[in-house]
Structures are given as C-alpha cells and as structure tokens.
Write a structure and sequence with these properties.
By secondary structure, the chain is mainly alpha-helical. Helices cover 58% and strands 7% of the residues. The protein is rod-shaped.
Length: 92
C-alpha cells in the first residue's frame, strides 16, 4: 500500500492576516470595556461615599439651623415649614 498525501486546507495569507487583525481589535475593545466597567465600579463606590458624607452634613446642618433650604450660591437659607398631617374639614 502506498502512502496517501494529506492535503491541508489553508486560507490565504491575506485572509488570515485580516482575521487576526479583526480578532486583535475585538480583544482590544473587550479589554477596554472591562477597564471602563472597573472604573465605573470604583466611581459608583465613590458616589455612595460622597452621598453618605452629604447626608451627614445635612444632619449636622439640621441640628445647627433646623429644617432649612439652602441657596448654594449665596449660603442664604429659609426655614422649611412643617407639613401638617391634619385634614381640614369643610362644611358643605
């Protein structure tokens, strides 16, 4: 019996380079998305911390000044009137 020669099926060098190039671009984009997601995660933690700090400041201000609305441009404040839970009855 004679040996049979196996023929390899190979795409052209041009097509191979094109596929490699596109795969490299895809990998780069996926890597960048991962980096952005990690940055987003860190920013969300920072956001939560700053929100907590702001709430702490609000509590401190309320102890000092009472319930007020503050103009962030001038620092002026006005008192916030308490809403009444009582229902007014009107006669028909």
């Amino acid at each position: 019996m004679g040996k049979t020669k196996k023929i390899k099926n190979v795409i052209s060098e041009e097509h191979l380079e094109s596929v490699k190039s596109k795969q490299g671009l895809l990998n780069n984009i996926v890597s960048q998305i991962g980096a952005i997601e990690a940055q987003k995660h860190a920013l969300l933690h920072n956001l939560a911390e700053v929100n907590k700090q702001l709430e702490d400041v609000k509590v401190e201000l309320e102890k000092e000044y009472g319930r007020v609305s503050i103009d962030l441009e001038t620092g002026e404040y006005t008192f916030i009137e308490e809403e009444s839970n009582a229902v007014e009855h009107t006669e028909n």
